[in-house]
Design brief:
The complex is a heterodimer of chains A (about 300) and B (about 45). Helices cover about 50% and strands about 10% of the residues of chain A. By secondary structure, chain A is of the alpha/beta class. Classes of the chains: A alpha/beta (about 300), B alpha+beta (about 45). At the A-B interface, helix 6, helix 9 and helix 10 of A face strand 1 and strand 2 of B.
């Protein structure tokens, strides 16, 4: 297989673009895809302070590398969620990445700052681990942006993440979520930070290949709490369809943005208010994270 | 390489195939003594 650009030996095939690329032209291709996404969706404004959620996995570290090479100044925040060796190893990889490149990485530690880990929160609340994790991450990332004065939260969600989430929301007809699913979630008066997803045009396999080709050491092991995770199962299904019909995931997602989402946006968005406990935005009197924290304390006290 | 993926019923979109420090494309030829890594790419939740 030859590189589409220079005709040298290809190192990766991107079937949805009907193309092979050599190392350098694949890297250029990924940079162009991300640059185009940022500009098409007006993700950043000049002078915005950018904070990237860093997990130590391929997506967030690849995105940090891409944005830095595109000339953006982006700080990172790592959330230590107390998932045993997995969290500790991911933190080490994130710190090494930042240190090697002279980037600033902030660390928030759920167990030491809040007194519980994600596994403990899942057990106490009887949520799935991924649900307790997602809730905690959304809360802590928004709080980090607020506390440290960042304008934009940058997330490493890729094409597969967004396509699988869309599939899940369609399966359950989650109309509120369908109304909001977007590469850009604007800041709200109620205190939610602007959130952007520059990797939404890049497939998961491509971020992994980018990380390997750029020599980025990332956490290859999947989170031990995510075994049997529904969204990951949907990703496998979508990949089987993609193999039969290259470009299907992109068509599914971009078609939804262009033609589907507006059908779910007829109603008013839910009104946000400050949580009575912590002041973070919520639609209830007390936010879901404070209710989760209270539940963990209640169970621990028994 | 494609035969290898088919044999193990692996979806090519869900893995990288790595030999040493090189990524392999679907038309790559494998030799009998080659050691390759099938690295899953699906993560998150």
């Amino acid at each position: 297989m030859k590189c589409r650009v220079c005709r040298d030996k290809a190192v990766i095939e991107v079937r949805r673009h009907n193309a092979g690329f050599c190392r350098q032209h694949f890297i250029d291709h990924i940079h162009r895809q991300v640059d185009r996404t940022i500009h098409d969706h007006d993700m950043f404004s000049p002078g915005d302070r950018l904070l990237l959620g860093v997990s130590g996995g391929k997506d967030s570290l690849a995105l940090w590398n891409i944005l830095t090479e595109l000339g953006y100044r982006v700080d990172g925040v790592y959330l230590h969620l107390g998932i045993g060796d997995y969290s500790s190893e991911s933190l080490v990889l994130s710190q090494a990445f930042a240190q090697e490149r002279g980037l600033e990485l902030r660390v928030m530690d759920l167990p030491s700052e809040r007194g519980f880990s994600v596994p403990e929160a899942a057990r106490a609340s009887r949520r799935t681990p991924c649900s307790a994790c997602g809730l905690s991450k959304r809360y802590l990332l928004n709080q980090a942006a607020d506390d440290f004065g960042y304008d934009v939260l940058v997330m490493g969600h890729n094409l597969d993440d967004e396509a699988a989430t869309l599939f899940s929301n369609v399966i359950g007809w989650e109309t509120d979520y369908l109304a909001r699913q977007s590469p850009v979630l604007p800041a709200t008066d109620g205190g939610l930070a602007r959130k952007v997803k520059p990797l939404v045009r890049v497939a998961e396999r491509e971020t992994a290949a980018y990380a390997v080709l750029q020599g980025i050491e990332y956490e290859v092991e999947e989170c031990p709490m995510a075994a049997g995770n529904t969204v990951n199962r949907y990703k496998q299904w979508l990949n089987r369809l993609e193999e039969e019909s290259p470009g299907l995931k992109t068509r599914f997602l971009t078609g939804f943005w262009d033609k589907g989402r507006m059908a779910f946006q007829a109603g008013e968005p839910p009104e946000l208010r400050a949580c009575d406990e912590c002041g973070q935005p919520t639609t209830a009197d007390i936010c879901a994270f404070c209710r989760l924290s209270a539940r963990v304390r209640e169970v621990s006290a028994r | 390489m494609k035969q290898l993926l088919d044999r193990f019923e692996v979806v090519s979109e869900s893995v990288l195939v790595i030999r040493g420090d090189e990524l392999l494309t679907s038309d790559a030829r494998l030799e009998p003594d080659d050691v390759v890594e099938l690295r899953p790419v699906i993560s998150g939740g």
